[in-house]
Design brief:
Length: 127
């Protein structure tokens, strides 16, 4: 019984420590906010920054690159992860375009917070 009590007390102490010292930065960013982040100059700003890779054009690569964007409380992009890519340089082009974009930060109760945001960038060849 005494050992069980020690295990229980240890478990109670570990839970709050995990919340104070998260294992990764992913936990520091909220998956949603009352006001979600938006590109300051609109989504067109991101598309305007994209350079369609010549390798992708030659190979006829089209599709969507799905990104997870980590936006801090200042509206700066801290990191970008490719969730699903299409290759041929399109993934890298999408990441670079997003990294160079300034966002209006996400907010909860009027306070700017860190938010992770998913975004799909479409690559489509025009004739």
């Amino acid at each position: 019984m005494k050992n069980l009590l020690h295990i229980f007390i240890l478990f109670i102490l570990i839970i709050p420590l995990n919340n104070i010292f998260p294992s990764g930065k992913d936990e520091l960013y909220k998956p949603f906010a009352q006001v979600m982040p938006e590109p300051k100059d609109g989504i067109e700003n991101i598309y305007g920054r994209i350079k369609y890779p010549s390798e992708a054009q030659k190979a006829g690569v089209q599709g969507k690159v799905y990104l997870l964007i980590y936006i801090n409380e200042n509206g700066d992009v801290d990191d970008v992860k490719v969730l699903k890519g299409i290759g041929a340089g399109c993934d890298e082009a999408a990441v670079e375009a997003v990294k160079g974009t300034k966002f209006n930060p996400g907010k909860d109760n009027g306070v700017a917070i860190k938010v992770k945001l998913s975004l799909a960038i479409t690559f489509k060849l025009t004739s």
